[in-house]
Amino acid sequence: MPDKNVLILGGGVAGLSAALELARFDISVELVEKTGFPGGHAIQFSCKATDKCVKCGACVAEEKLENVTENPKIRLMRNTCVEKVTKSDRFSVTFQTGPEYIDPDKCNGCGVCLEKCPSAGAVMQGFSKHHTPFYAICAEKCLFIKDGSCNVCQEACPEGAIRLDQKPGDYACEADAIIVATGFTGFDPKDKPYGYKVFPNVITNLEAERMLRQQDILLRPSDNKPAERIAFIQCVGSRDASLNHLWCSKICCGSSLRMARRIKARGPETEITFFYIDVQTFGSDFQGVYEDIREEFRMIRAIPGDIFRTDDDRLQMAFLDSNTREPAEEIFDLVVLSAGLTPGKDTEHLAGLLGAELADTGFFSSSRDGIFLAGAARGPMSIAESVASAGNAAWETVKYLSEK
Amino acid sequence: MTDKTLVIGNGPCARSIAEALITQGAEVIVATKKDSADISSAEKVLSNTKLVSCQDSAGSFNILMNRNGEELSETVGNVVIAEEAVREPDFSSYELTPSPDVISLSRLTGLLSDGKSDELSGKKIVFLTGLAKESSPVILEDIMQSCLRLQSNFHAQTYILTKNLKVGGNGLEALYRTTREAGAVYVKFTDVMPEIRQEKDTGVALTFTDEITGEKLRLSPDITVVDERIFPSEDIAELAALLELDTDQNGFVQADNVHRISVLTNRKGIFAAGPSRSIHSPADQVTDAGNAVISVLKPEADQPETAAQVNKGLCVRCLTCYRVCPYRAIILNARPFVVPEACEQCGICTAECPAHAVTIKELTRDEISDQIIKGIPQKKETTTPFLVAFCCRRSAVRAKALASCMGHTLPRGLRIIEVPCAGGVSHEHIFSAFQNHADGVLVLTCHEGNCHSERGNIHARKRTDHISGILSETGFESERLLIRTLASNMAKEFADIVNGFEKTILDLGPSSLSQ
Question: How many domains does the structure of chain B reveal?
């Protein structure tokens, strides 16, 4: 179908997979990603192999991105957001692009910008060699963008690749069909009583994934020391009627328990405690894995009440001990909150632009009229499920285009 | 080459695959062991038919089938396995014997859908699920749907006794809340399971301590429903064996390997969808069907020009290559022959062939030796050991590239030799590295269970272990040869491995062969 053009919104593992499937049909694909680093959440995740692969699928994102980058039928646009969608026979879509603060052609990836930047988090490092440029400026944290008070990176860049006064541009395209693959947003646990963003050593599972990925070990953010006693709290923001989040996020038991096993395999002396409601099945060898897990970790079926910081910068947690049915307290070095998967930040806005329907959960509900859904935009999904969902969205798209 | 597709199965997944392919103008043959097939629109529908053999490879599989004793042969381009799985109730795990008041979940759903549900009216019904073995969302969904009907339409009182409530499926947490609002009672167990007794006269009695209140409770249900576990059918096992497909630890088609996501198998042109590969929920089966259809319509592009080749003059017909090929790309005529369309160029056959008769262009001894020689440092300094790292293209090569991007310092004397799979790194390659002045040789491969060629990393380990043994016997330090596994996205790990290895080699000093 060389005369067809499909627009894919979202360059995560689902968007990348759908693009590759469509390209095999000789369909031209515009793959639009709002951040500077395509690959979505999955490309930031750590390999969780102990001595063997545990099938988390994190490495799949890297391979998909490489294949997309090399595919001449796919045009991958970074830093691009949808502004307007109109439909007559085809879709006409306009976008805002950029600002592209770092010129990908000039940047040599030396990292001086990150080294010199005085504002934490304002220069971000990529996760894949296909992140070109390998660095990006975070507009919310950059001091130049805030008040023009700093241009250290621009001055320091040996290639002259950084221009902080860049303005956004625009872009337009026509498409015969659209695949929405905008993924999820991790729940922000700041309103839960766990001191997230108050105590540096309370982090989310997504942050833990990134930390393991970059450093191969979980360190306490407050002092960069390895954590000896780690607690994982499951279902933070999932299965929560008070938030009207009536869904299980599906991936967190697998993500957290696999991370815990990797940590334990590298540091057998690490003590890990798991607070959970129900352990969800992950992987085809779950029965055996679950039996091992119950030996390796302390499993407590309870949702902890709250967390305080002790005088020696540790974390004291209160919970109802399910064995004694008495209130109990424990001290940990690091707490990992399994923050649930919630609808993508822009989901409502995007649904408005597309005229698409949302389910009660706030995720996209169903494909129709040339708009198809792939991946976690539909609801919580593992990496493997997202790839499968994208394959099916590609099939629905091909079918739609062949009937059109 | 033919565009014909053979779909094996008769369930909803097989049906939707066949129908979708037909709408796209593909020629479809449906074969099922059942005595009738529900798919009418296919070119050929073969009921009472079983697969007898499958010869040749992707693009043209020669299939022999048996239909009521009559032999049929077909040549097809693709095969899709979309067989149904079987459910088996777990009575024995609960020490229960099936009886009119102790039934399986399927029996209950059967009663509900047959309209023979009067006997359920107003009854006290207990579901046992996941207490002995871990359950699954697809079973829980059936249980909760049944509960909802029993509570709402039959004024029954339902109890669900479980360990981990498997709500990790789409919409199941919401359904769980709905069943509770309808009056279903959930009792969860963590370490101590309920005591279950079945008496002839009085039926089943369950006694347990409520974990939240500590109260001792006793339940005497009118009907006890036992959950089920899902197994591959005998048909699935037979097909996997016949088509030489890898299976997962439970016997479902498709190895538990991320490279097979979502419907791929170890053989090009053969796909597994739905229950055959352990995908059981109806929604996920629809997704799988879509993936099977798209895979059949547009298979991956082939790269036959780099396929393995058997040198007739050297081949001694030992059939090693035939045995080790993970993709079943080698067929036997008078001699072994590599089907280029099915070959994935992993190189395992080339490394294993004792007669050096199988070659892949980029993996020949000369090709690899040339690369090693080019890497020999011009001026040899004693502080920079020459390290040759054979790196799998799918994992270590990518990890190396990322490590460079991230600014990790890597040994100056490190030379990367990219190979399609570490299973293709032969004795000769490793010895060539040592002969060409390597102070240390690394083989970096994928984690076990993550090898695209399924066993390439295991072959690589066997080979390096063997060579280490030889080196030790000759008095050469076996520490100079190291095999490690890693993933493509782990840059830090790559840097740690190679830097750690450099340190080992620095401690050992230059190799006696590099003087």
Answer: 4
Q: How far is A351 from chain B (nearest CA, A)?
A: 21
Q: How many helices (H) and strands (E) does chain A have?
A: 10, 20
Q: Are residues B487 and B370 in the same domain?
A: yes
Say which of A62, A322, A392 has its CB closest to residue B291.
A392
Which tokens belong to A355? 């005229």
**Structural domain span for residue B434:** 365-508
Q: Is pTM, for the whole model, over 0.90?
A: yes
Taking an 8 Å cut-off on Cβ atoms, the answer to whether A62 and B488 are in contact is yes
Terminal-residue alpha carbon distance, chain A:
12
pLDDT tier, B380 (very low <50, low <70, confident <90, very high otherwise): low
- In Å, the largest CA–CA distance within chain A is 68
Site of tokens 């381009």: B77
Beta-carbon separation of B294 and A250 below 8 A:
no
**Mean pLDDT across the stretch B71-94?**
95
Q: In degrees to the nearest 10, what's the CA dihedral of A296, A300, A304, A307?
A: -30
Domain membership of residue B515 (yes or no) is no
Q: Do the chains contact at A248 and B172, CB–CB below 8 Å?
A: yes
Chain A positions touching B286 (Cβ under 8 A) are 392
SS3 content of chain B, % helix, strand, coil (to 5): 35, 25, 40
Do B401 and A52 count as a contact with CB atoms less than 8 A apart?
no
Across the A:B interface, residue pairs with CB atoms under 8 Å apart total: 190
List CB contacts of A245: < 8 A, sequence separation 6 or more: A187, A237, A238, A239, A340, A342, A361
Q: Are A53 and B250 within 8 A, CB to CB? A: no
Q: How far apart are CA A151 and CA A142, in angstroms?
A: 9
B291 and A395 in contact by Cβ < 8 A? yes
pLDDT tens string A336-392: 999 999 999 999 999 999 999 999 999 999 888 899 999 999 999 999 999 999 999
In a domain, B417, yes or no: yes
Is the ipTM higher than 0.90? The answer is yes
Confidence of residue B303 (pLDDT cuts 50, 70, 90): low
Q: To probe the interface with A, which of B190, B288, B294 has the most A CB atoms within 10 Å?
A: B294
The structure tokens listed for A143 are: 């001091």
pLDDT tier at B301, thresholds 50, 70, 90: low
Helix/strand/coil percent split, chain A, to 5: 30, 25, 45
> Mind listing the pLDDT tens digit for each residue in B46-59?
999 999 999 888 77
Does B304 reside within a domain? no
CB of A292 within 8 Å of a chain B CB? The answer is no
- The answer to whether B398 and B382 have CB atoms below 8 angstroms apart is no
Instruction: Report the residue of chain B nearest A55, measured CA to CA.
Output: B258
Mutation target to probe the A interface, by most A beta carbons within 10 A, among B249, B262, B279, B486 is B262
For residue A14, the model assigns a pLDDT of: 98
What is the CATH classification number for the domain harbouring B133?
A: 3.50.50.60
Distance in angstroms (rounded) separating the CA atoms of residues B348 and B305: 17
Sign of torsion over alpha carbons A193, A197, A201, A204 = positive
pLDDT at B413 over 60: yes
